[in-house]
Design goal:
Protein name: Alpha/beta hydrolase
Distance between the termini: 10 Å
Order of helices and strands: EEHEHEHHHHEEHH
GO molecular function: hydrolase activity
Helix content: 25-40%
Structural class: alpha/beta
Keywords: Hydrolase
Strand content: 5-15%
Largest sheet: 6 strands, parallel
Length: 213
């Protein structure tokens, strides 16, 4: 069976490359697309979902923003199981920072030029979506298109979703992006930050082996 995987905001497969997925399944990484100008989130989700063959059963796994994405994809193409890593099940679990962005509309007001290479390197835009204490964080941050970054942060801020109890949620107890106090995860990674798929990959692999079989 195929496991379709979507990584975090601006990240590629390298964030998850240390995780040993169940060997009898085929892992397919879905890369982020650059959104069209003023593209609706629902239309973007449809484009991402085009890469999934739903003629046979499959699993969905998403990390961070990818966790939000796979839950949206699941509405169009239902998976046998959905697992989210370092992500949230509903808008009720958003952090204060993300809720502030939704209320103030700051992500919408900021110009695309604000999301440039220099800003990215200074962490001033994306550091809350990673672990600022990890000196190697930028090696996982590959998709740096300014419009993609601005658009994505807007969509995370505005995201509204009713919790699906069947979604399996894995959170770290030291995550500053999606604080565990706002959620009731199925599995907790002790001592992990938002980058726990890198630092605690053995624990993650063990959980996935049990959940995905």
């Amino acid at each position: 069976m195929k496991i379709y995987v979507v990584s975090g905001l601006g990240a590629d497969f390298k964030v998850l490359e240390k995780i040993e997925f169940p060997k009898h399944h085929e892992v397919v990484f879905i890369e982020w697309l650059i959104p069209h100008q003023n593209e609706e989130f629902s239309d973007y989700v449809k484009r991402m979902a085009e890469k999934i063959d739903d003629s046979e059963p499959f699993y969905l796994v998403g990390y961070s923003f990818g966790g939000i994405m796979v839950q949206e994809i699941n509405r169009l193409k239902p998976a046998k199981k959905v697992v989210i890593l370092g992500s949230i099940k509903s808008d009720k679990e958003k952090s204060r920072l993300i809720k502030a962005g939704q209320i103030t509309k700051i992500p919408k007001v900021l110009p695309v030029t604000f999301f440039n290479e220099r800003t990215t390197n200074m962490y001033s835009v994306v550091r809350k979506f990673f672990d600022p204490r990890n000196p190697k964080v930028l090696q996982y941050f590959r998709v740096r298109d300014p419009y993609y970054l601005k658009w994505s942060i807007e969509k995370i801020s505005d995201w509204k979703f009713e919790e699906n109890p069947d979604v399996v949620q894995i959170l770290a107890d030291r995550d500053i992006v999606f604080p565990i106090k706002n959620s009731k995860p199925d599995y907790v990674i002790k001592g992990g930050s938002h980058l726990f798929p890198i630092t605690k990959f053995k624990e993650v692999a063990s959980i996935l082996k049990g959940v995905l079989g």
